[in-house]
Amino acid sequence: MLRRDSPNFDARPPGLAVDTIVLHATVFDTLEETCSHFENPESQVSTHYTVDRDGTVVQHVDESRSAFHAGVSRMPDGREKVNDFSIGIELVNLNDAIDPYPMEQLSALETLLHQISTRHPIANIVTHAEIAQPPGRKTDPAGLDPSQFRPKR
Ligand SMILES: [Zn+2]
User: To the nearest whole percent, how much of the chain has pLDDT over 90?
Assistant: First the structure.
């Protein structure tokens, strides 16, 4: 796993299980721009992982830490501060609902989701757009149907 460490994380609250994955789109066109942004302490933002268009996966923050990716947020079940109990994954994509998510990227995402699910009791896979508060604040990842990744019950 490639590493481009970000300083933009906090400790997780003790005793809280990680049961949620939040999917994002970078808006940046390249992996390099995304990594630079996450490495900058002034940006105050990072996910745990970024998946490039070609399927390259980069880790920025350990899963044991709370990365700054969801911002003000609320789950459908009412829980807030989603960063505390989630893992954030960024997909390199312009987020204009036109830029496609290549098969290599979606396949690498699927593998990553599976790996994370072996380490944490993942019950929810949501988009940033679905949980950002107030509603409408975020649109990412635009053009991606999250239902294809949701745990089958
Ligand atoms: Zn986002």
Answer: 94
Question: Among residues 19, 12, 15, 10, which one has the least CA distance to residue 84?
Answer: 12
Q: Which residues pair with 2 in a beta bridge?
A: 58
- Name the catalytic one among 63, 80, 90, 110: 90
Read off the pLDDT of residues 65-85 as tens digits, 9 standing for 90 and up: 999 999 999 999 999 999 999
Rounded distance from Cα 15 to ligand 1 centre (Å): 26
What phi and psi, each to the nearest 5 degrees, are found at residue 122?
-70, 120
Distance of alpha carbon 72 from alpha carbon 78, whole angstroms: 13
- For residue 52, the enclosing domain spans 2-143
Q: What is the pLDDT of residues 119-150, one digit of tens each?
A: 999 999 999 999 999 999 999 999 999 888 87
Chain length of the chain? 153
Report DSSP letters for 122-133, one per residue: --EEEEHHHHBS
Specify if 127 maps to a domain. Answer: yes
90 is catalytic: yes
In a domain, 151, yes or no: no
Distance CA 129, CA 113 (A): 19
Q: 7 CA to middle of ligand 1, Å?
A: 18
Predicted TM-score (pTM) of this structure = 0.97
